[in-house]
Amino acid sequence: MLKDRAYVISFIVGILVFAGGWFLVKTVSLYKDTVSYASVGDLLLNNLPTYDLRFVFSWGIYLIVLIIVLYPLLFKQEIAPFMFKTYGILLIVRACFILLTDIGPPAGFLFEDGFDGTLFKEISFKNDLFFSGHTAIPFLAFLLWKDTKFKWFMFAASLAMGATVLLMHVHYSIDVFAAFFITYGIYAISDKIFNGLNVRFATRIKIHGFKAVKDKLKNIYEASKNS
What we know:
- The protein is an all-alpha fold and about 230 residues long.
- It has one domain (about 5-225).
- About 65% of the residues lie in helices and about 0% in strands.
- The protein has 7 helices and no strands.
- The chain has helices spanning about 5-30, 55-75, 80-100, 135-145, 150-165, 175-210, 210-225.
- The longest helix is centred in the C-terminal third of the chain and has 36 residues, at about 175-210.
């Protein structure tokens, strides 16, 4: 695939879009955390106690991100450019919503005294609420990997992460529920724009990639058995 100029360019563009999206989210979140905002009521959270699930909150999402990065690079190279572009768009849209939403963390917010005990606490924020990235990130992987059985792991992970942030009172219920709808909309738009390249890269991998090598080895093995 690295010999395919279109693939390399598409991959680089995807990395740049993703990096730009991450930069925007971090910049906007840092800015929002310089201001104190009032909390609002939430019917669901009003009836839920606060649980300390910071291990799942931090280690869980970083494990999910690691899997999301490694899986396409190792097993589905054709979707890697599309994946990075789509995640970049997700981050850009999320940065816009964070900037537009002047609202403080819910009552019972677990990290009221800081993010001690969390992994990479320097990139943890309290006012980056709408919409939930913990929910959106694995759910987008579920949509991207729709033709694999592994998608169900990501779907379960999105539900688990959504439940985690609610039980910790670090997101409002609307942050979690809206994440599914917004993420699907972003995926649908990105798929409409970039699907043609995905098909081309998938075809090239089928002809020249790992699967082609595996099929050739299988044919050689069967030929040797029959001779």
